[in-house]
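To illustrate this point, what follows is a protein record of this kind.

___
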Amino acid sequence: MPLPARFPVASPYGSRPEEDVMHRTPPVPHRADTAAPPVRAAFITLLIAVVVVAGARLVLAAAGMQVMGMAEYSTLIPVVAAALLPLRQTLIVGLANLIVGILAYGILLPAMSHASRITVITALVASILVSLAVCRARIAAERSLKGLMVARERLTLLSEASTRVGGTLDVARTAEELAQVAVHRFADQAAVDLFDPVLKGEEPAPGPLAGPVTLRRTAHRSVPAALTAAAPPGSSTVTYRKGSVPALSLLRGLPVHRQFTDAADGRECWPADPNGTGNQAPRSALAVPLRARGVTLGAALFTRSRHRDPFDADDALLAQEIAARAAVCLDNARRYTHERATSVALQRSLLPQMIPPQPAVHAVARYLPTDVEVGVGGDWYDVIPLSGARVALVVGDVVGHGIRASAAMGRLRTAVRTLADIDLPPDELLTHLDDIVIRLQSETAPTPSGSGEDALTDADVGEFVATCLYMVYDPISRRCTAARAGHPPPAVVRPGEDARFLDLPAGPPLGVGGLPFETAEIHLPEGSLLALYTDGLVESPRHRLDDRLERLLEALSEPKPTLQEACDHVLDLLVDDRTRDDIALVIARTRALDHGHTVAWELLEDLSEVARARDLTSLQLARWGLPEAAFLAELVVSELVTNAIRYGASPVQLRLIRHDTLICEVSDGSNTAPHLRRARTFDEGGRGLFIVAQLAERWGTRQQSDGKTIWAELALPPATVPTPAPALATL
């Protein structure tokens, strides 16, 4: 039997009009201990109708009019009650109608015939029986319809939870989505509490959960009437007391629901208000453990207030199903958080932890990983000290994201440092680096004979391609030599000028092979600003590349007091929430070493010049206020000059560079590189470079177009703070 439109079936979960998919009007919440107001009004109205019909009979009988027709109205009253009231109230209305009919027709109206009385009373009894049968049929139909609607509501809620929960790979956001889905449709108040390690991407430590358990309140939602003041999500901890609803749920690993008899019981067993802010005491509580892949991540907590039905076993099953799906999403987010943290940690460990002071430049750098959805990339930077107080500035980018890109970046950065240590020119260094990338491509190429799992792994590797920009700056000549392999050009800001991009030859990306790299040489005055960056800084899906490059030049052209502020200013102007790639940025201000820091002498190709070289070195160190370093410097210079004259070719030059250390350089016209070896006991030679290696902090050799240079770096006394003096005249 269809239900009257005035009495819609109330959903046990409640509903907002804009979200309800089954009712055109908001459902009427009901309470189990009292009748709904429309039912009570109908019951009272029908009882009044019984009295009114009986009074009408008596009035008509007193006027001498026919009253048998009034019996038809009396028989309709129980039938109307059967369509509107529950079974018990229908029976009350029918019995009241029968009693009033017996009194009216049997006692108060003696003029009626005996047959008429029997007919009327029999009709009233029959109407009671018919109304009871109709009422039972209606109630059965209501229960069946309500069951179908509840089942449909639960399926809708489950479908909505499957769609809305887990849309991101963020743990806190996933917990927030679970709380949002549950409130209004399932509960008046919902909270998601997780163990602290889960929020960090780690797995909670296994252990018994029998005692008090402390978790982090990650998400919280409630209807306005359920909570007057709540602790903000993620800012408080919650401790589950032993025996409380959520503690029992975590201990058993199953949903636990409880109905509270008074407010004190609800506040005692339900830790929904950790800061004591006065939330409304719940009528019923339900706690469900969040378990995925055998690991307990936390608990989901739900409450219903006094105006709603308490939780039952079916609600617990529904909540368990929703929590199981949400737990898998939370665990996926936790695993991704762990993988991202590992990638970022790997990336940052492979990058320079700090940039040490350099005599050639003052440099600062920034590295920004991309957002959580894309994953960390393969951008890197480096500031490498070279011989002769020079410095190498490097910025590179490995195509791709994830741990593989970070690992490849680490290998390339190590290779660049190794090649830089042998003082290769920028174009030759990129050529060797290109060969390394090609070799790495062959090592990571997919194996056709691999298994299905191996094939999937190999397919994820992809083609290994990288870009790189390598620049070498000499503070003595103030010249910068640079080459790039598929990388964006650097920007330079000379003193008194606006920023512009350097016109460097655009070489192919690393890994292409077959094409040469070209070197460009530029002069940079002291105080010039160099900016090296990766493509993530200037590429954006919402802007043209040319516009972003112009914006970079504008940002660099604005003078800032410090390089740190200049870096922050560039990033503030160019980085937005749409950035989809890692960003590496290096900004360096060039320095210059004048004649107060360097001196050079031309030497004849005669062994007698060795003594002269020692004397020149001793005199210059005395002018620099470094007499303590004279002994070691004379010994090193003597060995280097002797080797250059004996085994090298003219011209021979000695150069001293003083900054934080003392650098001794001896150049000659031969391309033959010396080799360190251990001399035997009776050998007359072969000990010169060994002595130099033992006395110097660092030493090495570098090839030049017109010969080679052997250099050694000596540490200065720590307490010496010399005042630069004019250099000796070049001889």
The longest strand covers residues 391-401.
